Amino acid sequence: QGLRQGDPMSPQLFVLTMDTLGRLLRRATELRILQQLHPQRPIPSVSLYADDVVLFCHPTLGDTSAVRSILQLFGRAYGLHVNFLKSSATLIRGDAEDAAPALDLLGCPMVEMPITYLGIPLTLRDPLLPSFNP
């Protein structure tokens, strides 16, 4: 009958499944399909928590095309598909006009900083204490 929400195996299966996505992204970086995020040290390109996923990549046609292909491969393998209409892209640094073709390729709306992830405001500036009040 498959798995249902609340099944005791669900958390372990989620971890195994999402670990595969992280490994696919790391391998793509090792093979230089994706650009390394930092020139001197490895930085994770994915953050996973519950059903929330944040991916980091350079806003280039090559990187966004590779990320989209990896997500499609992952979806075919596991049956977990990204709803790009419910997703968003945020440019952390750079020129929005230069990044527009790469972001358009993802097929999701662009959202400007600050954004909220898991209820926490993400910004490029030092966060203000009131931002953390529920």
UniProtKB/TrEMBL annotation:
Matches recorded under InterPro entries: DNA/RNA_pol_sf, RT_dom
This chain belongs to the protein called Reverse transcriptase domain-containing protein
Superkingdom of source? Eukaryota
The portions of this protein that span the membrane are none
Residues forming the Reverse transcriptase domain are: 1-122
One Pfam family, short name: RVT_1
Organism of provenance = Aegilops tauschii subsp. strangulata
